[in-house]
Amino acid sequence: MVGYMISAVLLLVVIVLAVKLLLQRKRLRDLAESMEDYLNRGGEPAPFSLREDTVAPVENAASELENRIAVLTERLREENERTSSLTADISHQLKTPLASLRLFVEMDESAHMAEELGQIERMEKLIGSLLRLEKLCADGYEFTFAEQAVRPLIENAWESLRALWPKKHMEIEGDAALRCDGKWLGEAFQNLLKNACEHTAEDGQIWVIIEQTEHTFYCSVEDNGGGVREKDLPHIFERFYRSEDQAQSGSGLGLAIVKEIVYRHHGHVSAENGKNGLRINLEIPILNLTKT
To answer: CB-based contacts of 205: which residues, under 8 Å, 6+ apart?
Structure first.
């Protein structure tokens, strides 16, 4: 009888321990899901735990970490807003004297008027691009995501450039559909194609290859301009960066804007020298459209 009671107690202890272990595992699993939701989808931070068990320190550490992330994110947002505001103020202050300078140049009609107006126009475009980039970096634009076929975006971007470079040729291979902001992703492709046009011969060739897996969209844009030096590759997405042998064309901001647009799509952009010239590679995750 005593042996039976001891066995029953031991069995009860085992059951209690097993249930406790299962509950702890569930809490850890719920905590992991909550942290993933917080990091990837902006969910609520984990609450502080008042329990006194082995899982509570893990829950509280996660809560503290998420709160620190929230504070740092807010500080970064405020700093980006200040930088964007400063850049906007400087840009607007420059626009007025530039407009006056353009007026005086047109009135003078000097022998160098065309060159002077060209430089003023270049400065105006530079200011506009810089303001656009800074506003992108500060999350100053609202992105609207919807399922979109990519090939038409590239074709439309090319059509907007053909009048400037009528002898250049572009080939597209493949197609894909992903959840994106068509307007902004189209601008990214326009900047990529413009960059390729600026660094190829008059009859330059551009190849665009599109691929798609279950989870990722891939696209490469390659030209036959000969590429860049290896030491320049890590820097070509930096604003205003130019290699020593690069012609002074463009604003120096196009690829930086591309990087920010791709980043807003949770993607990654990189550069390498291909067989014919510079190749820019885009990777953008294909989000699950069934999720809200």
So the answer is: 168, 169, 170, 171, 223, 224, 276
